[in-house]
């Protein structure tokens, strides 16, 4: 009888010990699972619009910020970073947990940031976060006009260096592209260009250091700039005039084919049965 009582006490004490350690028999939650997601300072992915308030001093900026099923943005604010000169420089910041995808802040929405300038904006341009520029020139008040990659006053479409640079941007030419030749009459353009693909070797004779690729594009002039219409490595007019019969023969008749080293062809792989 005494032996039975001792066994029961041991079992009871063992059960109590298990209950205390496990919190009801389950596993204790890890600290990682309960640690709060940090809110960090961030900037909008884009600033898409700007307008002035009735006082011509309040600047309202349309931004793209994180969004999700739970709050994703706090303390959205715009501040003037430098004294106003011929420009108004503004920075937009907010805090968000979106740096951690488990926050659920994986979508975006539009939000408006507001800053009151020390004096009316006048004819000054606005630069937001160092790279997005707005101007009142050519805009319909109270809105400001968003400037593009070529600035607030893009070059007129024509046979000029600035206009050729716009044509390269229109076809997403690689960085550090060189124009090899251009034929232009103001309405039509054919542009040959190439870019380095090898390492920067500082004048080394190694052929890898001078390796290049190239391309040829044909363009039509539009008010907004040169519009790409066709790409080929072939010489002469046959390919382009098959695509655009109006392209002038005077601009394509003397074109030589691009060198295979610049524009290699890669036929589709064949499978052996």
Structure characterization notes:
By secondary structure, this protein is α+β, with helices and mostly antiparallel strands. 16% of the residues lie in helices and 34% in strands. The strands form two sheets. Strands 1, 2, 3, 4, 5, 6, 7, 8 and 9 form a nine-stranded mixed β-sheet that branches. Strands 10-11-12-13 form a four-stranded antiparallel β-sheet. It is elongated, with a radius of gyration of 32 Å. The chain starts with a helix and ends in a 21-residue tail after the last helix. Residues 21-41 are annotated as: Disordered. Residues 1-20 form the signal peptide. This is Integral membrane protein. Keywords: Signal.
Helix tally equals 5
Shape assignment? elongated
Whole-angstrom Rg: 32 Å
Succession of helices and strands: HHEEEEEEEEEHEEEEHH
Considering the chains and any ligands shown, give keywords for the structure.
273 residues, alpha+beta, 9-stranded mixed beta sheet, 13 strands, 16% helix, 34% strand, disordered N terminus, signal, Integral membrane protein
Map the helices and strands.
Layout: H1 2-22, H2 31-34, E1 40-42, E2 46-52, E3 58-67, E4 74-80, E5 87-96, E6 107-116, E7 125-128, E8 132-135, E9 143-146, H3 161-170, E10 178-184, E11 188-196, E12 212-222, E13 225-231, H4 238-243, H5 249-252
Can you give me a brief rundown of this structure?
The chain is an alpha+beta fold and 273 residues long. The protein has five helices and 13 strands.
